[in-house]
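Researcher: Hi, I'm a grad student and pretty new to this. My advisor asked me to get structures for two proteins we've been looking at. I'm not sure of the right format, so I'll just paste the first sequence and hope you can take it from there.
Model: That works fine. Here's the first sequence with its structure tokens right after it:
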Amino acid sequence: MTEFHPPALGRMPAEWEPHQATWISYPFEGGNWHANIWPGLLEHVREEIARLIATIARFEPVVVNVRDKATEADARSKLSSMSDMQNIKFFRVPLDDSWFRDNGPIFVRKHGGELCLTDWQFNAWGRAFPHWQRDNEAPKAVARNLKLERVGVPLVLEGGAIDVDGRGTLLTTKSCLLNPNRNVAASQADIESALAHYLGVSQVVWLEGGLIDDDTDGHVDTIARFANDNTLVACTADDDNPSAKTLAANLEILQAFAAEKQLELVTLPLPHTQRVVAGKQVPQSYANFYIGNGFVVVPQYDDERDEDALARLKPLFPERKVIGLNAWHLIVGGGAFHCVTQQQPASAV
């Protein structure tokens, strides 16, 4: 845990603060690696994403990124049977993949209250996949669409690598944010200074790592999250789970932090069933929930612990409807609902 001086730009609002909209990318055919990460599952993944969009649209506007005409037609077809479409808009933008949490912008509220967006560099999770040039242009397209100031940042950072409480504290993992495959010339101090300046961070809680076989090198949004001003959620695993040792080390760090700050710490066991696809552990986690205006959507995996996860999370969101949605196919690609969404904070405070 490291503390810094106050930032210069502003602060990244907490996810539970009011939203203007949710941005989400609709999966498309012909992507650079969709055939590999969702082998034979694209139609099922689209159904799950459409259900997620329709659910969010009951509570707040949704902007659906579509790469081409055919993708938009498929999205409209599925969504028209699930939603009245009034809260859904489509935005045509070239993309290489669908994980908008990572390749989209990160919104910041400046000291005067106005919004801007920070445009960090994206390199497909440390060059884990071959193409990302179009993804890296997405924040510019969003800035033009919203007519918002865009602040370019010369460092690689994915939105799923961090989680904030909106009051200066940020959770992340050493395995991801300090990995030289992102910023080979940047030290920990350099990264901390950038987080302080661009996102309003005054304290970083450095966790050891993430889930086994996670292509992101350990994004924090699958293992530990802020649920509200006073509560942390931390994943745990059965002893025979390959991620158990790392999660136990993370839990010790979070317990010390929670005790120091007088926060409640709620544990959230991983699903009982360990799925392996193409020789890799599927990173199933209930911590990849998404918080919006009056709702929380929680991934479900047809697992015996699905209901327990909902029961643990519902008391943390007394003024929101906690909704479980199927992510059984989506998660094969490496992420769930938090990974595919990006919140746009309300324009006024």
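Researcher: Oh nice, that was easy. Here's the second one.
Model: And its structure:
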Amino acid sequence: MTLFPIINQKTNLELLHNIVKKKRVANAYLFYGEDGSGTEAVALEFAAILNCTAPEQRPCGQCPACKAMRGLEHPNLTLVFPIPIPKSSRSEDSPFKQLKEDELTEIHTAVRNKAANPYYKISIRRGLHIPINFIREINRSIYLTSATSGQKVVIIFDAHLMSEDAANAFLKILEEPPSFSTFILTTANPEQLLATIRSRCQALFFPPIPFAELEVHLKSKAATPYDARLATYLASGNLLLAEQLLENNLTEIKTYVSQTFAALANGDVKTVYQLTNDLSQIGRTESDYLKQILRGLVFWIRDMSLMRHGSDDGKLIFNEICYYFEGIDPKISIIELCSNEAVRRELC
């Protein structure tokens, strides 16, 4: 069993279990892979394995250590992530000393969300970097004897966002790491870390979640089979993004794609121009959302090509839209589909 709900990554989990079983835990690890692949979720799981008090089958999920770790409240666990850096902040101050009340509230809420969903991305407004005082705070506490048995674990989310001073300060800790402590750095951009930091970490690559497994997971969240498939492909295997699409943008993307190709098929230049202008506006403020819409347009073209050549329906991504119009043969081209009067009234 796992303490946190983790999808796939069986190979990395087995490796980490074997490391603990053979008592060969290193001082520092680098978990790298695309956002949503599970680097952060497995980092939390590893921290639970290292601190569970059960004689075997760790984490047990029942001992006080596991329960505290599940809520991200274990005294041996420290989470580090980008936070706002007040102008008046000094490098020797506590990282949270000069933060405003609303910023502290946002951080507390983000950590609670992370406990509820290990794939949740902690992203604090104006938190562009991990400041040096965050690392110095770790340096002050990591060498102290813990009042609790187990392993001190420091997880640095988005480790590539450490400021230059913070990265250099962290490197000094790695050069003389304290006993009974483990640092886990997670990142989607390992090349942006100092080479000297990377060289002192044992690296584990986290591949994207296989589309089939992500699709099954989304269906378990009460998503329709059609929406689960579309969200899976639009998110390119990123679990967090797929869940966000289901909650927020999927219907909008489907509508945009349908309207775009209906307008193209009918030679509606005015609508095409308006939709293109909308895309331009979206790209200025929401580049990731723009990418998802563009993927949707590409997937629609792909589906229409497959349908025209008699492809099996199971290979379609926009499967739902293919059967959206009652009485319309799904195995026709997009031009033929959108030339139908009933379809044109619905889409345009």
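Researcher: Is there anything I should tell my advisor about the second?
Model: You could mention this: Residues 281 and 290 are 9 Å apart (CA to CA).
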